[in-house]
Design a protein that fits this description.
By secondary structure, the chain is mostly beta strands. Helix content is 11%, strand content 50%. Strand 4 (52-58) and strand 5 (63-69) form a beta hairpin. The longest helix is centred in the C-terminal third of the chain and has 26 residues, at 348-373. The chain is globular and about 55 Å long.
């Protein structure tokens, strides 16, 4: 059947109305993670059940590790005077982090079932657990007896394993996946540091985006790594995803710098970036080849500015940090209302408008037909 002018006009009107209503609603619902009584809170990691860990000030203004489930924040510290920090969480809800003594020394620990268990050392005074996998293996950093620092992998029932360096003195572990692969940064012999991925075959240099330094922050189950690298000239940093042997530049939100902190198994990354003009730092989501400002995806009236996103799980939930105009800062859980990479379907107003448009076109066509018949 040939396409009539009426059908063509109707199709164009439909396209216009669908495009006009695309993304009219927020793509994420946002939940304030609350507080432990203090004025600020931080976020670090999220598991695939939506449980979030981080640290927040309690009413004594002491940093306390917390876990947040279903909108309720619970302290992981044994008392209100112990400084503690949680940096990683597995799908069973077991968290990893550190507890700090009154003298300032830190100890890598696991938070589980209301207990805090130390996981050892590499002979030095300080240690810090960063990531934990579903088998209970932990990745982090610890002081050696000689005062240098090493990335480690800890296996339950065993000891910390020093993962070495890339030829220099120090290394720092940041995360571990379910295959036991640890990522972080390690010194080179020339004093620079590069992002690394460490497994049973050794520590592997991931390179840079042209600058002298790079750092890995998170690894997914496929072995893809999120982090940041200095660009040529070392004047700015860009977020990256390292996958299939290639370090991919994620660019920025228009400013000079960006950093990626988290990645899920779909390869979607989150982090922070300077916006155009360098006037602020905003949280971002990188998906389907483009970086988007998370503040544009939560809709108007939110009242807070999301300045960085710390992690993203396989459901697409994001944990992010934001502050309001009075300087109050909180952690937030963002849950997708739909497919972030797709155009939203038109809602009821669009359908009504489309129906009205069809009626108008139909009425106009009927008038033309009547006029032709009267000739």
């Amino acid at each position: 059947m040939p396409v009539t002018p009426y059908l063509l006009q109707l199709g164009l009107l439909s396209m216009f109305l669908v495009q006009a209503t695309a993304r009219a609603a927020p793509l994420y619902s946002v939940k304030n993670l609350g507080s432990l009584g203090g004025d600020s809170g931080d976020v670090r990691a999220i598991n695939n059940n939506g449980a979030v860990v981080g640290y927040a000030l309690n009413s004594n203004n002491i940093s306390s590790a917390y876990i947040s489930r279903d909108g309720a924040m619970h302290s992981l510290s044994p008392d209100r005077s112990t400084r503690s920090y949680a940096s990683g969480i597995n799908d069973a809800g077991v968290a990893a982090g550190q507890v700090q003594s009154s003298s300032g020394e830190s100890q890598a620990v696991i938070f589980s079932g209301g207990k805090i268990d130390a996981i050892g050392s590499l002979g030095g005074r300080n240690s810090d657990a960063k990531g934990i996998n579903n088998a209970g293996q932990v990745g982090g950093s610890a002081d050696r007896a000689d005062g240098t620092q090493a990335a480690f992998r800890y296996t339950p029932g065993g000891q910390m394993r020093d993962l070495g360096t890339l030829g220099g003195s120090n290394s720092h572990g940041a995360d571990i996946n379910n295959s036991g692969v640890v990522v972080g940064r390690a010194d080179l012999a020339n004093g620079q540091y590069h992002a690394f991925r460490g497994d049973d075959s050794g520590m592997h240099d991931l390179g840079t985006l042209g600058g002298s330094y790079s750092e890995a922050n998170r690894i997914n189950e496929r072995g893809a790594v999120a982090g940041f690298s200095y660009m040529a000239g070392d004047a700015s940093t860009h977020a990256f995803i390292f996958d299939d042997g290639i370090m991919n530049d994620l660019s920025t939100l228009g400013g000079a710098n960006s950093i990626s902190y988290g990645i899920n198994n779909a390869g979607h990354a989150v982090g922070s970036s300077d916006i155009a003009g360098g006037k602020a730092v905003h949280a971002f989501l990188y998906a389907d080849g483009s970086m988007r400002d998370l503040n544009d995806l939560v809709g108007p009236g939110f009242g807070w500015t999301l300045n960085y996103a710390a992690d993203i799980n396989d459901l697409g939930q994001i944990t992010a940090h934001g502050c309001n105009t009075s300087g109050l800062c909180r952690g937030f859980l963002l849950t997708p209302d739909g497919d972030v990479g797709k155009v939203d379907e038109p809602g009821t107003p669009a359908i009504l408008a489309l129906g009205a448009g069809m009626m108008l076109l139909g009425m106009g066509r009927a008038r033309r037909v009547r006029a032709l018949r009267q000739r």
